[in-house]
Amino acid sequence: MKIGFVEILVILAVALLVLGPDKLPVYMKKLGKAMKDLKKYSNELTEDIKENVIDPLDEAQRPLKEAIAPLEELDSALRSNVNDVKNSLKDIGKPSASDSPSDTGAEKAEDNSEADAAADKAATTQEEN
What we know:
Layout: H1 5-90, H2 101-128
């Protein structure tokens, strides 16, 4: 929640009407002192939390981070090796780059002609029986 300049003027006008012109400076001085004390205590609390909570946690984390660093390096090296193995396994069973598509087509034609000849021979044998 933000208080702008207009809101402050409205608050001052209401305070002037409620307290009157005689008491307003006294209460404003007390409000200023209270705000100053609040800021001082807030800063002290922030510093106390930093000293007693944040700094000890940082000190406790430092050795853990140093111990984890070699493990992270090992993890990245292992992941790299696993990816290399996966990539090499993908190529298993695929025709090599040295085989040309025309050679495989010729081999298929030879296989088809041999299969046709075997089928014709089987059909002829059945007709004779």
